Amino acid sequence: MYNISHCAFGIVHKEFHLPTCQIVAIKHYRSNNIESINSLKKEIKIYNEFKNNKYIINMIEYGVIKNENKLCIAMEYMNMSSLNKNKYLFINNTINKIKYTCFCILKLLKIWMI
C-alpha cells in the first residue's frame, strides 16, 4: 500500500485490486458519517455518468472494507509519468476535442452542484 494523496474525506492509496488483477487507486474515507456518505454517493454518480470517457478516470468498484468498516472507491490508477506526458493535451488536440472536454467538465460541475 503506497500513499498517493490526501483528499477532503480521506486518503488515496495505490493498491493491487485482486478481482481485476490490476493496480488501482483506492480512496479510503476517514469516517462513515452522513457527509462522507453523501460525498461518496455524488462521486459514484459522477463516475457512472462519465463511465468509459477517455478524459476521466474510471471507477472500478466501491464498497465497504469489512474488517475496517470503512467506505472506499477503487479507481483506475494513473501514474504521474502518464500525466506529465499529457500536460499539453489541449495544445495538441483539435478544437472539437477541446469543446468535448469542456462539455464534460461543465456536465461534471452540474452533477457535483446538485
Description:
By secondary structure, the chain is an alpha+beta fold. It has a single domain, classed as Phosphorylase Kinase, domain 1, CATH 3.30.200. The protein is globular and about 50 Å long. The termini are far apart. The model is unreliable at 81-85 (pLDDT under 50). The protein contains 4 helices and 5 strands.
Break the fold down into its secondary structure elements and pairings.
Elements: E1 2-7, E2 10-17, E3 22-29, H1 34-49, E4 59-65, E5 70-76, H2 80-85, H3 89-92, H4 95-113
CATH fold assignment: Phosphorylase Kinase, domain 1
The CATH H-level superfamily is Phosphorylase Kinase, domain 1
Structural class: alpha+beta
Task: Give a short account of the largest sheet.
Answer: 5 strands, antiparallel
The CATH architecture assignment turns out to be: 2-Layer Sandwich
Largest beta sheet: strand ordering: 1-2-3-5-4
Mean pLDDT: 76
Give start-end ranges of low-pLDDT stretches: 81-85
Radius of gyration: 15 Å
Distance between the termini: 34 Å
Percent of sequence in beta strands: 25-35%
Question: How many domains?
Answer: 1
Give the fraction of residues assigned to helices. 25-40%
